[in-house]
Amino acid sequence: MPSAAEDNPDKRQLRDSLRSAAASPVPEENGSRPASHRQSQELLLKDLSARVHSRNRSHDVRTEHSAARMFADLRATEDKLDEVDVHLAHNEYVSAVGLVRHIEAKLAGVVERIAPSSTDDPATDELRLLVDVVRLKIDGRKMKVQQALSFQLHHGIAALSTDEIASIVEFYEAFGRLDDGVSTLWDAMSAHLANTVGRLIGSAHGSTRVDIVNYLANLTIVYVSIVRRVVEIYKKCVEPVLARGSTMDSSGFVTWCVGEMSQLVDTLKTHASGTLLVETGGIWRAKDSKYYTELVRMVQPQLALLRSDGLNVDYLFSDIMECQPA
What we know:
By secondary structure, this protein is mainly alpha-helical. It has helices at 4-7, 9-22, 35-55, 67-89, 93-114, 122-156, 162-174, 178-203, 209-242, 251-272, 289-308, 314-321, and strands at 277-280, 283-286, 324-325.
């Protein structure tokens, strides 16, 4: 037999609205929810909360387990969420993340106090509904924090210190989204590398063999310096977190490094083909031994730097670093 709470049309409507608020829309290309949906969901949750509180006004907060006391505690918990927005507005991520976790702990305490209550008690049903609302509000703040961190990585990765990046990784882990955080970090480094290479291409002039060798040498230096930076970030910012028992492994990091260095090899082949190198039947040969030797002389020390950092990608370059004369 349906409970009294389930028979109440208004509460059924609230439950239906809550399910609608919890439903995730199709994500945008960057993985975030559309801004219009987020805003409408926030308004809906605010309205749901106000309606529940308006029906359960009471000043009887003398005992910890009274419904009125728990409603008051939930309202205080909700009010704290506005402080998260203030911290984010001032880029105070440590405070924002810490406050979200504090709010989650407070909510968990209220949930424990609700648990022994009768399921047929209308006030208990309202409390559980309000808990769901607060949980969704917390999820919304978590998403805002993650979006702010993602923006920080994508737009400031070149200027962020290792300690700052380590803190950002820790923030993602605190929300149980370490995979997303590390993936965002590598994406930001890829964008930084692409922008740096783009500036190098824009400043390149001339098409003589000397120009080509200098350009390819500088390109290699740029790639290696940024990949070495990623190796440093992985060792100092990501690896310590993984060592604490994360199910995540190093495969994403290795894949990123190999992928970027493979792209460098492809670029070297493209620009050296026809002037320094020629390809016949899948085998590369030196067309101009003098300038080819100069290119090898500049690239090999860069690969040695990567090896010194524990990343050996020499095999990617083998077919163009050991060419016989054409």
